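pinning this so it doesn't scroll away 📌
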Amino acid sequence: MRRGSRSITARRAVLAAVCALGAGCTITTVIPVPEGTSTYDQIPAGLAAEFRAARVRFLAGDTAQARAGFERLMEAAPGTVPFGIWWQECEAELSDPDTLRRRSEEHTALHPGVAGDILAARAQADPIAAEIWIARAEVRDPDCVWVHHARAFLAARDGRLDEARLALERALAADPGHLPSRRLEVRMLARDGLSEAARMRLAGWVARAAEDPRVLPTDLAEARLDLALLSLGAEDPGDAEDQLDALDPQYVEAWRYSAARACVAQERGDLQAARRHVEDARALAPRQVLPAVQEALLFDDHERDPFRARAAWSVVRELAAQSDEFSSAFETLRARVRIERIDAAAEAPAQSPR
């Protein structure tokens, strides 16, 4: 049930500032993700128990011991990409980017192969260096899903969207159940404004990823947060709240989590909780546009405080002018219109006939 025009306006404003996810209909279909077929993602049966044990150590915060466990797994099965990804996650926590890159390249030198090349590419800060490693992997196996996924990821990150779509098509043709490629597909759909299609596919992705021990906890938590935002855009605050309750906040950006909680609270009509979450988000990310927009909307549409609302919209205008996000122009225009409306309302009594 719709709560009213102010609530809908606030929700759309929030989602536009996050990732241009427009409002849509309530989800009717969850598109499942099939099981993967890539040999590079299969965990050898004899190593499954050791993998789960190393994963448990990582989740418990024993990163050094977890890294040692994943290193043993990489030695035993150097062609299994997920072993290397979890090892890189540990290494990233325990060392610096240069060390991670060097150690990834050393592993590849000792164990030449597609998986090693892909791991070396993942560790590169320079996209050109990453492309060189990807090209090496492609020479070894032109049909490897990870090769096409890596190309799609780099192209999407650089804004080369046609190239990204082509590479993503090749990745999904190689393995329709490849979770990293399916996750990138969702991002591309959302970027293209196809929010309901993105939501249906992301719901299926989360359902499968939640049962897959190969998925990093950060990836699952971020997917749940994105699904919560999509659900808010589809006027389904119940599902949004379920996704936020299910995720572990330590694995997502704290300000984004607080901003999403503020959206849900506002939809529920709990303005006190919405105010608390907005204040948290503003404190955590004072230069981000989204929390500033939420604060301005609370002052303007709910608390009806024109003085504080005008000050808040002025902050939004300033932050949006400094931002290179694609929604910044929209927020700049919105702030200007809101400020003009507040100023006009303040001048009206003085101009009215006595």
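📌 and the second one:
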Amino acid sequence: METMGKVVMVGTKESFLIRSTMKKIAEEKVDISFITATVDEINSVYKETDAFILYFDSTHPISAKVLLFLKDKMLEDKKILLMIGEKLDIENAKGHIPEKLVTNAYERPLNQEKFTEDLHAYLHMASYEEKKKSILIVDDDPTYMGLVREWLKESYKVSMANSGMQAITFLGKTPVDLILLDFEMPVVDGPKVLEMLKSDSATNTIPVIFLTGKNDKESVSRVVALKPAGYLLKTISKEDLLQEMEKFFAKQMAKH
């Protein structure tokens, strides 16, 4: 049976209420399991888990150590995080885990129908986000870079780097599907960054499209000579940029 995602219920003990909630969720084709609220247990399943549900029981509270560990993990790699409990328990937990990391919180008594419906929606959204292509924009102009990110963020997972070296460091930890690279940057310019990317086996297959502010024949010839995946003028409109991205990824899919 195909499931929507992997969900882990976290509590200090597997109570009747937890088992009842898990049963309801499992009936909706969600792969759900229970773990006790310890650092080792959470760490052992974190990577393959799509959503965590913290179930608070006032008589057996989840320790601050565990909450802080989960917060640190989610700052590195955010997941769906839901909370179930009494109002005070939820407020106390949010003292350790910032509100921005909490997808939603539900006070008891729990409306299981509503909770399961919401969980489905969050898993579906996460699945859609996961399938988005990732783009790294590299530009020393934060205003322009922010504008391009705004244009692209609805359709793609977008990251930013304001220098060539920052881009190299980022790519050492996070692979992307495409790099939009400013041709003219101080210290380490676009051509140098491209050279560094091509010399590293971890990055030499990532396609690079140059962003350039010059469209005279000599400037364009310099860009094309480096054999990037393409180049775009910085004067490009939002509509044309989105169209170019769509065409580029369609071609990439056709190759494979």
